């Protein structure tokens, strides 16, 4: 039988992202428009326990864990990508975009941090080379990032979807060049306005969230146009190998 409870000491404004730690199933990060990232132990006591909160200069749009459960990365409307030491609270600016930063994603396999911004770029951070990053230009404004073990999917405005090989992105990041060109593994134009997308942990399925009002600025979207689709990938797509 399932159960549900509300965390104590919730954010005071809308929540933008929630992420569980990889190694500790009760360690949770929450980012919010109230300009904070919150770190909880969800089962330390009834209602969970707020361990720390980390202030930013502007609303925080996304957060993720890094190489271990004491490292996090955040981004938001201050245009900055930040590393947060969850033990000491120290924050380090990894890079600065020229508009708000919508998503951050960490690939442990490739030791690669990726951020996507409304300035239509990705920033690639090879964590073995602190202080350096490389930019990849996108054809449209990005709305969502997701990764399988081998691929990165970027859902963008104008119904564009680019799929990149993480291995090639990691290699580009290691060059240390300010701007790099990485050819997508696949480029697609969706028949739908994709707003969010995510892989299953085994890389065999993709969940696609469609919300046309988000892109078009429509508050009252007609019934039936906001949908979630599940797509099963072919063996070739899941493995990341071209025929």
From TrEMBL:
InterPro entries with a match to the protein in the record: WD40/YVTN_repeat-like_dom_sf, WD40_repeat_dom_sf, WD40_rpt
UniProt keyword annotation of Repeat present: yes
Pfam families for this protein: WD40
SUPFAM superfamilies: WD40 repeat-like
Keyword Cytoplasm among UniProt keywords: no
WD repeats, residue ranges: 94-135
Origin: domain of life: Eukaryota
Keywords attached to this entry: Repeat, WD repeat
UniProt protein name: Anaphase-promoting complex subunit 4 WD40 domain-containing protein
């Amino acid at each position: 039988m399932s159960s549900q409870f509300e965390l104590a000491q919730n954010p005071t404004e809308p929540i933008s992202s929630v992420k569980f730690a990889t190694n500790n199933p009760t360690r949770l990060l929450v980012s919010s428009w109230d300009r904070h990232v919150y770190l909880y132990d969800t089962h330390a006591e009834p209602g969970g326990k707020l361990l720390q909160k980390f202030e930013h200069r502007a609303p925080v749009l996304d957060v993720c864990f890094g190489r271990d459960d004491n490292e996090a990365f955040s981004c938001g409307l201050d245009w900055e990508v930040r590393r947060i030491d969850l033990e000491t609270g120290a924050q380090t600016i990894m890079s600065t975009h020229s508009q708000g930063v919508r998503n951050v994603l960490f690939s442990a396999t490739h030791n690669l941090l990726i951020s996507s911004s409304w300035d239509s770029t990705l920033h690639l951070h090879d964590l073995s080379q602190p202080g350096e990053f490389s930019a990849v230009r996108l054809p449209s404004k990005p709305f969502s990032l997701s990764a399988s073990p081998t691929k990165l999917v970027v859902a963008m405005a104008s119904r564009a979807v680019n799929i990149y090989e993480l291995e090639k992105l990691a290699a580009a990041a290691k060059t240390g060049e300010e701007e790099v060109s990485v050819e997508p593994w696949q480029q697609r134009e969706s028949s739908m306005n994709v707003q969010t997308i995510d892989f299953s942990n085994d890389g065999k399925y993709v969940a696609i969230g469609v919300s046309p009002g988000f892109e078009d600025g429509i508050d009252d979207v007609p019934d039936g146009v906001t949908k979630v689709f599940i797509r099963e990938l072919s063996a070739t797509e899941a493995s990341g190998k071209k025929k």
